[in-house]
Amino acid sequence: MKMKLVAAALGALAGLSIAGSPSAGVNPGDTITKDQADKVADLVSPGNLILVKQGMTMKIVPTDRLEWPPPYKAATEKYSPQVQLAPDGTLKNYSAGLPFPLVDANDPQAALKVMWNFSYRPLYTDDAVSKNVEIASYRPGSSPADPVEHFTIGNVGFYNNTGRTEVNPIPTNPEATTAGIRYRFGAYPFLEPSAMRGFGFIRYRSIDPKIEDNSWMLNPRSRRVNRASATELSDVLGIYQPGAGAGAGAATYASNLDPDSFFGFAAKIEDFNYKFFGEKPMLAVVNAENSPAKACPSDGGRTVCPENWEMRQLYVIEADAKQTSLLGSGVSIPKRIFYIDSEGWFITASDQYDHDGKLWKTVATFNAYRDRPIPDARVAIWPFKRMFQTALVDEDIVTGFSTVALSPGFETDEHESWYINMGIATDNFFNPATMANAGH
Q1: Residue 287 to residue 310: CA distance in whole angstroms
Q2: CB distance 43 to 283 below 8 Å
Q3: Is the dihedral of CA 141, 145, 148, 150 positive or negative?
Q4: Quick one: residue 307, left, alpha or beta (phi over 0 = left, psi -120 to 50 = alpha)?
Q5: N or C: which end of the chain has fewer CB within 10 A?
Q6: pLDDT of 223
């Protein structure tokens, strides 16, 4: 019976559409400039609204449907009926696919179920490699051609041990039980700027909720690999301005982006308490027109624009760092509010608050849905359409300092960039010793 309910729920979701539906005077075909920002005041997050007011132009397009990859949909139908939440909020009996295809807004655990769905979203279930990722930072008044700083990262990679749907072993790699590792992430080597050349970052996520992430960073000056604490992962990567305090609203001259904000949110699910604010029709970028993304000419390159924005059904979730976790009160961003797409289950926007409860930073993600990352791809061609991220904007709204992460980047010749569920990520890449050798 539960299997039938899941199949029915998936079928009902497939029939939902808000294509072309007007909302607050916004219709497909409209172009929203900073002068019309009030038209989208209720359709974007408060932080993202500031991005529009400073010049991020939006092209409103009809709503399209995001279909899951067939192996992911099959895994959801097969495995989701057995998934439960344990009393401590952790997952029980999860194998693969979406853990909770049925989310009841009246369920007191709705927020946590949405977050576990985000955590096991269909973007990259097995492995993914993005090559030559670029990160550019801008101050107010700068231009797209003249960033304050420009990073290039040779490789950004993921390898999941659980929830696998396409590349053997399926659905679980034995490492999940033998070593207790849920997934591994790596980003290295930084190729520029010169002060950061060789820098790298590796992160292991444990299945055990009581074990914090194991993380390593390669110091580009000493060429030594050092362990990173959980609290460091919520702070910015880069070289600090003299006297700039973490969490004080002061950006580094190099970057705004912290590891816990990668892809909207990358911290451990169990380290936060969640509140469900409901499901709301809002604007988001899920079918980006441009890959590589284009620097926004009307705000000095601080965001990506003009890009296609469409009406979506988004879950709004507040995340508050647990004081009882290993993070304690040392986390730089104690509160975040997420806007999560109810089909793709990725974060489309995130507003971040400081320890005084004031809005500090805002994140906007730009996502695409295709069977290849670029039209002339020769290697990264998938058997069906996938969702992938083309860009992420992280802006300190106090100072106006903005960091834009691009995959693929503006300058690199490697525009295919995303190799998803193709078995390219190897065990060796996620070894700190390999990162140290690459840094030299």
Answers
A1: 8
A2: yes
A3: positive
A4: beta
A5: N
A6: 80
